[in-house]
Amino acid sequence: MRKGKSEIFSLICILIVLILSGCGSSSSNNSQPESKVFLTPGSSTVNPGDVFSRTVKVQNVGGTFYAAFDMTYDPKVIEYLDATEGTFLNRNGTDATSFQAALQDGKQGRITIGMTRLGPIGNVSGDGTLLTLTFRAVGPGSTSLAFADPKGFKDSANQDVRIGEWESGSVTVQFFLIQSFYLHSSKSLKYSSLLIPAVRIHDFIISRPISSYFGIMIGRLTPSFSKTR
User: Fold this and answer.
1) Which residues of 163-174 are buried (b: 16+ CB within 10 A; e: fewer)?
2) Which of 3, 102, 173, 201 lies at 20 to 30 Å from 113 by C-alpha?
3) Dist CA 38 CA 56 (whole Å)
4) What angle do CA 220, 224, 229 make, to 5 degrees?
5) What is the pTM of this model?
6) Quick one: pLDDT at residue 25?
């Protein structure tokens, strides 16, 4: 009887140890941050005509030798200007690399990006900056700045490097509240306002005898005049 109790006690102890070790293993796995590629800043608002940059960064990435992916955006809202290689693959300029970033078919809307380390210099791991992209705001509205067709990351043996998350961004080109005024020959001043895209502002002089009145219109407002005597 005593022997049976001893065996039961031993089994219980073994089960407790297994459960605790399993929890520890699970906790250890969950504590490891997932690898990702992301933009910084993730989202922002700019003015029409502004030139601005977005940085593509990596976090907790395993041994990497090569990276390639596309980025898409609305060409009616922003236009791509240039790209500069970051310091992740070249280890702050210590190692030789090859870097390319160009518009697909020479058309705004999609950028094809590729970069690789050169020679028998091994892989790089961890966090860092892949590249910086420069854009200009050209039209009102919002656009995503999204990773597309990720060809992925590979190591020096041409094996895939797992990326847990691709985190895209967005850009908003803001509107302005524009005020217009009409100066009548009677020297009365009339105001009105309209929310319009700043990049579409155009002004012109209404073609009427200046002795009657002088008017200026901004945006798409329709002036309404009544000649006074």
Assistant:
1) beeeebbbbebe
2) 173
3) 6
4) 150
5) 0.66
6) 43
Q: Which residue has the higher pLDDT, 192 or 42?
A: 42
What are residue 8's phi and psi, to 5 degrees? -65, -45
Set out the domains of the chain in order of their start, with CATH numbers.
Answer: 36-173 (2.60.40.680), 176-218 (no CATH)
| Cα 31 from Cα 139, distance rounded (Å) | 44
Closest CA to 152 of 178, 115, 102: 115
**Token pair for 47:** 């003015």
Write down the mean pLDDT value for the chain.
Answer: 77
Q: What is the pLDDT of residue 16?
A: 59
> What's the confidence (pLDDT) of residue 149?
80
> What average pLDDT does the segment 24-50 reach?
78
Q: Return the structure tokens found at 70.
A: 């596309």
Tell me the β-bridge partners of 36: 59, 165
CA distance linking residue 167 with residue 19, whole number of Å: 36
Residue 166 one-letter amino acid: W
3-class SS letters over the chain:
CHHHHHHHHHHHHHHHHHHHHHHHHHHHHHCCCCCEEEEECCEEEECCCCEEEEEEEEEEEEEECEEEEEEECCCCCEEEEEEEECCCCCCCCCCCEEEEEEEHHHCCCEEEEEEEECCCCCCEEEEEEEEEEEEEECCCEEEEEEEEEEEEEECCCCCEECCCEEECEEEEECCEEEEEEEEECCCCEEEEEEEECHHHCCEEECCCCCCCEEEEEECCCCCCCCCCC
